[in-house]
Amino acid sequence: TSSTTSSTTTTTTTTTPLKPLIAMSAHSALSAKIASQVTTTSVSSSSTTGSTPPTAAVPAFDAIWVSGFELSALHAVPDASIISPSTHLSTTRDIFHSQPLPLIADLDTGFGNAVNLAYALPRYEAAGTSAVVIEDKTFPKDSSLRPGGRQHLVPIPEFQAKIRAAKELSSMIVIARTEALIAAATAVDTTTTTNPNQNQNRGQSEALARALAYEEAGADAVLVHSKSSTPEEIISFCGAYTGNVPLVIVPTSYPRWSFEDVSRLTDNKVGLVICGNHAVRAAVAGMRRAFRRIADDRGIAGVQDEIASVEDIFQLQGDDELRELEKKYLP
Ligand code: SPV
Ligand code: MG
């Protein structure tokens, strides 16, 4: 598509940044349902037909990110392969049944090797998952965002086999995630002798090689994760990236750019932006504020207008549907 600037007498045609798809994180059916109900008045990035009137309310987010970080936080344990695969799977299923957006499940390393992943895949597909993300670290994983965490990459052929398993054993979209930039940055956290720039360059060449190898193995998209505090590392990676599949980013550590900036500054190479942990962080902040106020006030009246109404919770619980069922089936 192209747009025309009319501010000058000469007409300039520029490439319009495509809007990346946006996935919102969730850790529960409730958080996913709340995300799915957020609307925007502009045309959704998933709508390419142009037939939706610009003023129509459309979902603001294109998908739900079933985040391992959030699910771990929900259980108050570290994001380090500690919650059980069955908890992870049953939450995914609950989220699928609670709301209409497609699910992108964060399978971490695939719960072990390619064989463990092979068993997980049909179960996630049956639970309603549309896309899976698998990452190229050793099992058990450690949170990418943790300073000095264990960030060990598996050999490329080993991870390619996981990608092949995911493609051959399911019809879900397979997003291969490379942690090469995270591993390089974490090595800088933990050493004093390494030259950070040299490490970053090594990280980028490793990440680029892995991205191409993962595409070759059949990945539908490549998630390149960074914990740099500015977008430059990702912009530089995208500039050097020569693959054909779209890139995916999780800009938790480098939040200061809009979704439109992402498209513009990465030459439209990023097809999906994941808001990685914003549901659980918003929930924690909201609970802390309300609990503090109740403790300080020695009563609950002060939070009345700051927290969701009971009626709002009834709606989120699906009270209308319950009433319909009651009318239909109860004597
Ligand atoms: C998650 O949300 O679980 C992710 C993103 O994988 S991150 O926590 O940044 O690794
Ligand atoms: Mg994760």
UniProtKB/TrEMBL annotation:
Gene3D superfamilies this protein is in?
Phosphoenolpyruvate-binding domains
Q: Which InterPro entries match?
A: ICL/PEPM, Pyrv/PenolPyrv_kinase-like_dom, Pyrv_kinase-like_dom_sf
Taxonomic superkingdom: Eukaryota
From the Swiss-Prot or TrEMBL record, what is one GO molecular function term? catalytic activity
List the residue ranges of the region (Disordered): 1-18
Question: What spans are recorded as compositionally biased (Low complexity)?
Answer: 1-16
Q: Family assignment?
A: Belongs to the isocitrate lyase/PEP mutase superfamily. PEP mutase family.
Q: Output this protein's name.
A: Phosphoenolpyruvate phosphomutase
